[in-house]
TrEMBL record:
Protein name as catalogued: Peptidase
PROSITE patterns, per database record: PEPTIDASE_M14
GO biological process, one term: proteolysis
GO molecular function: hydrolase activity, acting on ester bonds; metallocarboxypeptidase activity; zinc ion binding
Recorded family membership: Belongs to the peptidase M14 family.
Ranges where the Peptidase M14 domain occurs: 29-311
Source organism: Psychrosphaera haliotis
């Protein structure tokens, strides 16, 4: 696939405030964070306590409607035990990646109870609620939250979550960050990125199937393999391309590539968790539906937990 033009910006020139405002003005609310996410938290009261850890404050941006209606929530094991290992689960860092959000909620509602006396859970089901409602990868400032988990970040989605973990001294042994790779990566988000940053976008590969991204600084090969074994019982694993790569990155093992998480500002790099992974579900495959994608995310979590219990 060749470079695509984008409706905003001038070729060879990075976006300024005018282009970012133009982009923001085009974004529309398409679904309800309150109805599809927040309302479900009430069903978790037996196993989890819900904590509000901040608000996304975008009210000074005139084209963002009801900006202060984006409270951020953590669900945390109600019977917290300091003697147990802690597992952090994050969804919706990229708000448009639906199964990550709904997979986190589904695990909490239907599966967490089976592990309640073995782990403490901290779950942030929707890190980017504005992105969830507008089906966006970026936040209203045209910033990618999943490149923003570092000290001094200007992305509220990242800084508020990092502050919560630091303030509450949450030190997980495992962090699972739930994501998707979609066809809109090519039709919208990669062209927008190329235009915003005035760069050539060289990778247009979208794997047909599920894959994982490990942290190259601590890849935990057996951990990743155990997750793949769990997920392939639910959905198909993406095959490597003709260059033995997925999305331009060399395959490290079946269904797994690696990124250096912390320098890239990735969510999975924000803690010192011994075990970490980023999932990538492909919801646009002809072989899956919405429910299958949600269950693939659940299979990631249960596969990871079962591996940790087997150590």
């Amino acid at each position: 696939m060749t470079e695509q033009s984008y409706s905003i910006g001038t070729p060879g020139k990075k976006w300024g405030d005018a282009e970012k405002h133009q982009w923001l003005a085009k974004q529309l609310v398409k679904r309800s964070y309150q109805e599809q996410v927040v309302a479900k938290l009430a069903n978790l009261s037996a196993q989890f306590e819900t904590q509000e850890y901040g608000y996304l404050k975008y009210a000074d941006l005139p084209v963002v409607k009801d900006a202060d209606n984006y409270p951020l929530f953590i669900i945390k094991s109600v019977n917290w035990n300091d003697e147990l290992p802690t597992v952090l689960i994050t969804g919706g860092v990229h708000g448009y990646e639906t199964s990550g959000v709904q997979g986190a909620l589904r695990f909490a509602l239907e599966h967490a109870g089976s592990y309640g006396n073995k782990f403490n859970f901290v779950i942030a089901p929707c890190v980017s609620p504005w992105g969830y409602e507008t089906i966006n990868r970026w936040n209203p400032l045209a910033v990618d939250p999943n490149r923003s988990f570092f000290e001094g970040s200007k992305a509220q989605e990242a800084t508020l979550l990092m502050q919560y973990l630091k303030h509450n001294e949450i030190k997980p042994i495992c962090h699972i960050d739930l994501h998707e790779t979609t066809d809109t990566d090519n039709s919208e988000f990669r062209p927008a990125l190329a235009s915003r940053d005035a760069i050539e976008q060289k990778n247009w590969n979208i794997p047909d199937g599920f894959y994982l991204v490990a942290d190259s600084q601590n890849p935990q090969v057996e951990f990743q393999s155990a997750i793949i074994e769990s997920v392939k019982k639910v959905t198909h694993i993406a095959p490597a391309d003709e260059n033995d790569c997925l999305i331009g990155a060399p395959l490290q093992q079946f269904g797994v590539i690696e990124y250096d998480a912390r320098p890239l500002g990735l969510c999975m790099g924000m803690t010192d968790a011994e075990y970490k992974t980023t999932t990538e579900v492909y919801p646009d495959s002809q072989l899956v539906d919405d429910e299958n994608c949600i269950m693939a995310q659940v299979a990631v979590i249960t596969g990871a937990l079962n591996h940790l219990l087997s150590r």
